[in-house]
Here is the input.
Amino acid sequence: MDYKEQINPERLPRHIAIIMDGNGRWAKKQGLARMFGHRQGVETVHNITVAATKLGIEYLTLYTFSTENWNRPKEEVDALMNLLVDTIAKETPTLMNNNVRLQTIGDLNRLLEGARQKFLGCIEQTSKNTGLTMVLALSYSARWEITEAMRAAVQQAQAGQLRAEEVNEQLVSSLMATADMPDPDLLIRTSGEYRISNFLLWQLAYSELYFTDRLWPEFDEEEFYKAIVDYQKRERRFGKTSEQIK
Here is the structure.
């Protein structure tokens, strides 16, 4: 079935977020070390980014490395960081050729200085691109993000710049790492897991959720299109009735 042909270009999600899960399990199925799965996962990132660009998706946020991932064996963490840095360096010309702007959300201060500078350099180099914005959630967790937002609000209050009655949803959203982008319309999670895993907890309040058994290295363009077709079949009411939104 050609799912791409079924997509209504007038009803595309502006923002798609993806929890890329299953690299290690894919490698284990092949009898390979976990890092082979991560390398294959990078290829999937490339393919899905190109597919999103061709469709005209505005934002693509990828859960790349969580704060909890720092607890993995040091050898795996070091190898992942090296892979991420090498991939960014390799893919920057591709991002430029496809008019893709790179951004990151997360605690970049935990990265080694060399890795952090390479990420910031790519962000600067692609900053004037006007096509897809690809956001890497790197050293990120939603609880970290919400904690940082609370800390910022307290600092504003202590400086006399914020009163309690001024705190509302709009203020909280403005303090989030994603303040300059719309909330995700669609969340995709691969590998058959049915949980959010500390990802964009504030922003996913009204997102449509799509789960697939495909492991991330197996998730191809057709599966991506299938998720969008499924999204377009849903009625998004945001608390209203069906009659109110017609």
